[in-house]
């Protein structure tokens, strides 16, 4: 059976579209293989909640946030929730947005005790979150939570007696509240920075751990070389320990002492070498002898007949002998 090219292209296109839809829904947090339920909740402040954030019941993720829509007014924001499994949600259940210290906000459904259950598409009751700081206080220490509640009560008292204070006092209180707002904003920025540091893919901590892992891997691969180096070092130290260093040092010291004595004798005027180096008489004698030898050689060269007579008639040399060497070369001057 031959399948036409048009049929093949159409089949591949249909499969690609199906895979694209499945992948897009998977990235959006939807699971098409399990029947899902849709609920809604309305908030005045969603505290950074976005699509695909987790929906949690009793600490277990049961779905994701499908969308958030505030319309043109933005005073009431409707949050659509997708529950990926069949769950009986009591009619008096409450939806609460729970921000995290690391900046990851989630939606929590606190189940009620009613025997009447919500139907798909119903809107859950919602309450405003106490805030990340209050939740942290409650988890860290109940006493701190009570302090936070006292601060809220004090704020109410200040609002009640606002008319009692003068303008300067009001401005001071406004400055204090503005500083508190700046502090909470700085805390949110710090939380985002901490999340960036702890990011498992691009965070500084993850990069540092990867570098440490590379270093330890390199050290592990170099175990054999390190062991061989230590073995060679141990062998070398063993050979050095076997050497008779004390005897060698004694011999060296004796040699140095002999050399020192010899140099002292040479520097002194005792002995032949010392006299040869230090006594100027030898130099003067050698200089005089060399001068006389030069004079003799010049006289033999100039008046050879005075010393070698080969005349048949015995004619004698009448010239007088030289009394000083002849300066016949530039490179061999004579000492006068």
Describe what this molecule looks like in 3D:
This protein has 336 residues and is α/β, with parallel strands linked by helices. Among the domains are: 34-129, Elongation Factor Tu (Ef-tu), domain 3, CATH 2.40.30; 136-198, no CATH class. Helix content is 52%, strand content 12%. It is built from 9 helices and 7 strands. It has helices spanning 5-27, 132-140, 142-160, 167-198, 204-221, 223-242, 245-267, 271-278, 280-302, and strands at residues 37-43, 54-57, 60-69, 77-83, 94-98, 106-110, 123-126. Helix 2 (132-140) packs across helix 3. The longest helix has 32 residues, at 167-198. It starts with a helix and ends in a 34-residue tail after the last helix.
Task: Summarize it.
With 336 residues, this protein is an alpha/beta fold. It is built from 9 helices and 7 strands. Helices cover 52% and strands 12% of the residues.
What key attributes describe this structure?
336 residues; alpha/beta; Elongation Factor Tu (Ef-tu), domain 3; seven-stranded mixed β-barrel; 7 strands; elongated
CATH topology title of the domain at 34-129: Elongation Factor Tu (Ef-tu), domain 3
Q: How much strand content do the residues show?
A: 5-15%
Could you say which overall geometry the principal axes of the C-alpha atoms support?
elongated
| Cα-to-Cα separation, first versus last residue | 130 Å
- Summed over residues and divided by their number, the pLDDT gives a mean of 77
Unreliable residue stretches: none
For the largest beta sheet, what order do the strands appear in spatially?
Answer: 1-4-3-2-6-5-7
Which architecture of the domain at 34-129 does the CATH hierarchy give at level 2? Beta Barrel
Coarse structural class: alpha/beta
Largest sheet at a glance? 7 strands, mixed, barrel
| Secondary structure: helix percent | 40-55%
Per DSSP, the total helix count is 9
Element order: H for helix, E for strand: HEEEEEEEHHHHHHHH
Name of the level-1 CATH class of the domain at 34-129: Mainly Beta
The radius of gyration over CA amounts to 55 Å
Number of beta-strand segments: 7
